[in-house]
Amino acid sequence: MSRIERAEVFVASPGRNFVTLRITTSDGVTGLGDATLNGRELAVAAYLREHVVPLLIGRDPARIEDMWQYLYKGVYWRRGPVTMTAISAVDTALWDIKGKVAGLPVYQLLGGRSRAGVTVYAHASGSDVPSLLDDVERFLELGYRAVRAQAAVPDVAGTYGVRKGEGIYEPASTALPDEQPWDTEAYLGFAPTYLEAVRERFGFGFHLLHDVHHRLTPIEAARFGKRVEACRLFWMEDPTPAENQEAFRLIRQHTTTPIAVGEVLNSIWDVQQLITEQLIDYVRTTVVHAGGITHLRRIFDLAALYQVRTGSHGATDLSPITLAAAVHLDTAVPNFGIQEYMPHAPETMDVFRSGVRFADGMLVPSEEPGLGVEYDAEAAARFPYEPRYLPVARRLDGSVHDW
């Protein structure tokens, strides 16, 4: 019987910081898992090396469900982003191994195709409205069927989601957190105007999304959602911090703009009320931060019972391993909504060789057995770890605000 013989943790910075777990069986089969937690990467790396890897050696890699329960229930101190990211890495690597042993891509093990491809959305941004409109046009010309729009609020340097120059959006770019100013009132007055400008110029033939990024109170979010109803947003994302799930009931009472939540949530219990009381329309939990393929499938199955669709987080601080795993799961589940997609930097793709393909506004999974991703540890060694932190937002009076 095959057993887990070795588990290695790699930390590298090819474009962004990534933590990667590679499990090798006694039969020589390898599986990859993403263990990246942006800004707290080394916490997960240490958790894996010191507390999880010793538990894996000698165990049966085929017992994925048992391993998930063993790592979740056995720790006693449950949940939280560090624990769930570590569990995710193990779970995803074991699914990769199972696919390779079976000779099948992972989506086939999950029940096969529910769709030909996975619709994704692009990330348009601009320093002002004209540059945002030009960026939206660029993505539509590239074939995207859905575009997220963000523009810099005039005279507010801490606007979320706006690229610097022509490169990939990278908020975690400094050795210490960049402390950025924030003005909620200015944002509430400005953001609806550029969303309206996008619709006025390009019409309604594509999905338009917007990320509030946790920065409003429930009543502010309700007012914003009501103001932009004529824009027919596909969703407004993270309108208010999700620790208080009941807060979304107030937003629901005032607007029909769809709501998407969940990228910073880690378990089915974190989204249970949001889903079962239909307080959201899309659940954005991810493979890497919500317990891997095994647990994310549970969340999506619960969501399907309440007509809540999927919309998983997919920024470039999630490695190509997570993107591949997400596309396999998205391909199989019946209640798929949309997948966030940001192309990785060239140096990232020098380390991670992925078979995921973009075509006609969709991603298509690899047909190779397993996840279809390879990790080049020698290439990764050229990119040593560099401490980088996400920014911190401060109101104009100096107090800390939700970033």
Automatic annotation (TrEMBL):
Coiled coil: none
Domain spans labelled Mandelate racemase/muconate lactonizing enzyme C-terminal: 129-258
InterPro entries: D-mannonate_dehydratase-like, DgoD-like, Enolase-like_C_sf, Enolase-like_N, Enolase_C-like, Mandel_Rmase/mucon_lact_enz_CS, Mandelate_racemase_C, Mandelate_racemase_N_dom
SUPFAM superfamilies noted in UniProt: Enolase C-terminal domain-like (SSF51604), Enolase N-terminal domain-like (SSF54826)
Transmembrane region(s): none
Superkingdom: Bacteria
The protein's name: D-galactonate dehydratase family protein
Organism: Pseudonocardia adelaidensis
Taxon lineage: Bacteria, Bacillati, Actinomycetota, Actinomycetes, Pseudonocardiales
